[in-house]
Automatic annotation (TrEMBL):
It comes from Dissulfurispira thermophila. Homotetramer. Residues 106-133 are annotated as: Disordered. The keyword Transcription does not apply. One of its GO terms (molecular function) is single-stranded DNA binding. PROSITE patterns: SSB (PS50935). This is Single-stranded DNA-binding protein. One of its GO terms (cellular component) is nucleoid. GO terms for biological process: DNA replication. Keywords: DNA-binding. SUPFAM superfamilies: Nucleic acid-binding proteins. Gene3D superfamilies: Nucleic acid-binding proteins (2.40.50.140).
């Protein structure tokens, strides 16, 4: 079996750093991951809100350097967490992160492009037509 997921999104709030009884750092974060697609002649957005859990030294770095709105790339595996509340079974999927990359904010990318003289280069368009052939 193969369980791997790669997401790019923005944090919806500051990361929450906690420690296990054994002293291992654990950081939880929520990402807003937006997919843009074309429906007929109209562009649409579909946003998913996904929780991610990071362990160890990387968890401490996330807590120290990331904040609400920061873009990140998370690579990891999906896990379903199950629990019971007042007799009702509940579950949710979350990403257990193997790797978290801090990405520059959009303004930083535009400033860097302008300073390097590549601001007039037009990026290729995304393939957004998801309609069947």
């Amino acid at each position: 079996m193969f369980n791997r997921i790669i997401l790019i999104g923005n944090l919806t709030k500051d990361p929450d750093v906690r420690y296990t009884p054994g002293g291992t750092p654990v950081t939880t974060m929520r990402l807003a991951v937006t997919t843009k697609y074309k429906q007929g002649d109209e562009m649409k957005d579909d946003t998913l809100f996904i929780d991610a859990v990071v362990f160890g030294k990387q968890a401490e770095s996330c807590g120290q350097y990331l904040s609400k709105g920061n873009p990140v790339l998370i690579e990891g595996r999906l896990r379903e967490r199950k629990w019971e509340t007042e007799g009702t079974q509940k579950s949710k999927f979350e990403v257990i992160a193997n790797s978290v990359r801090f990405l520059p904010k959009r303004e930083s990318r535009q400033t860097a492009a302008t300073e390097s003289g590549i601001s007039d280069i037009v990026p290729p368009e995304e393939i957004t037509d998801l309609e069947p052939f």
